[in-house]
């Protein structure tokens, strides 16, 4: 297993230790708080460092076992970074708005995805046969569906792991993931609720430098996992060759037997001629 090396110095430079103002904190995050400075909570980076490695190991194992990850963050600071990460690593993402039932009501979401595919095919077809008004209406529908479902358009089933930045924004996604027993990795700021998070990472979830660091660590982990994933080679072809050889041998033996049967040993039926 090869996960990127992270240091406390990297976390400090990215501002991961900076939480929210003390008035906005969630008491459930108390165990991850080191102290406070200028009315701002300081996150304990020794715990962050340990938990980051645990979370990256989970990500690595998921990808190494041919699993898929759904990245979720609809807040402005992280939406673009999440989308870019998912596209680069060939994973899924939701960065615009979480639609109720995206995981728990997958049949309905699948129909919406099929509708998006149909509209795209109509708009790209040469012989469309639609009026300008109809084309404009379809374009509006396409843009709306693309924003909400574009990141999961290729997702055929629920993901094997969910990664979330800012649990306060994505509370509905967390509830659905818990209901389906999908493991959750999440960045937890000082105002976050850690309940239900399987792999918490205490850290700043607002600063762009912090978000970029998380995304870079995830990208390296996923790429390393893909490199070390064993390629399963099919053994059907050699087996088919062996079978064909055996059949040829059997057929040749049958032919030999037929030849023997066609040329039986000659005996003289008239014994008087012997005299």
Key words describing this protein structure:
275 residues; 49% helix; Rossmann fold; alpha/beta; 12% strand; 8 helices; five-stranded parallel beta sheet; globular
**Sheet bearing the most strands, described?**
5 strands, parallel
Helix proportion range: 40-55%
* SSE run: HEEEHEHEHHEHEEHH
Please, how many domains?
3
| Biggest sheet: strand arrangement | 5-4-6-7-8
Please compute the radius of gyration using only Cα atoms: 32 Å
**Could you please say which CATH topology of the largest domain applies here?**
Rossmann fold
Structure class: alpha/beta
3D shape: globular
Percent of sequence in beta strands: 5-15%
CATH architecture tag of the largest domain: 3-Layer(aba) Sandwich
CATH superfamily membership of the largest domain = Glucose-6-phosphate isomerase like protein, domain 1
The count of helical stretches stands at: 8
Oligomer class: single chain
Secondary-structure topology with pairs:
Elements: H1 8-13, E1 18-21, E2 33-37, E3 40-43, H2 45-64, E4 69-72, H3 76-89, E5 92-94, H4 106-124, H5 132-149, E6 161-165, H6 171-179, E7 184-188, E8 199-202, H7 208-228, H8 236-262
Parallel strand pairs: 4-5, 4-6, 6-7, 7-8
Antiparallel strand pairs: 1-3, 2-3
């Amino acid at each position: 297993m090869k996960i990127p090396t992270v240091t406390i110095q990297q976390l400090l430079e990215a501002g991961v230790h900076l939480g929210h103002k003390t008035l906005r904190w969630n008491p459930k995050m108390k165990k991850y708080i080191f102290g406070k400075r200028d009315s701002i909570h300081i996150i304990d980076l020794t715990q962050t460092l340990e938990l980051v490695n645990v979370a990256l190991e989970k990500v690595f194992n998921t990808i190494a076992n041919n699993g898929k990850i759904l990245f979720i963050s609809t807040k402005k600071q992280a939406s673009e970074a999440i989308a870019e990460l998912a596209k680069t690593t060939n994973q899924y993402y939701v960065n615009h708005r979480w639609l109720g039932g995206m995981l728990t009501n997958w049949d309905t979401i699948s129909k919406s995805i099929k509708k998006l595919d149909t509209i795209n095919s109509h708009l790209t077809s040469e012989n469309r046969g639609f009026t300008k008004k109809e084309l404009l209406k379809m374009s509006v529908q396409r843009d709306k569906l693309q924003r909400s479902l574009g990141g999961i358009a290729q997702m055929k089933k629920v993901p094997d792991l969910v990664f979330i930045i800012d649990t306060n924004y994505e509370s509905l996604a967390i509830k659905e993931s818990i209901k389906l027993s999908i493991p959750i990795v999440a960045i937890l700021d000082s105002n976050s609720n850690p309940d239900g998070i399987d792999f918490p990472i205490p850290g700043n979830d607002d600063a762009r430098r912090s978000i970029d660091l998380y995304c870079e660590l995830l990208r390296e982990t996923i790429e390393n996992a893909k490199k070390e994933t064993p390629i399963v080679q099919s053994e059907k072809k050699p087996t088919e060759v062996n079978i064909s050889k055996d059949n040829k041998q059997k057929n040749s033996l049958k032919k030999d037997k037929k030849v023997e049967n066609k040329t039986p040993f000659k005996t003289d039926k008239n014994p008087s001629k012997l005299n």
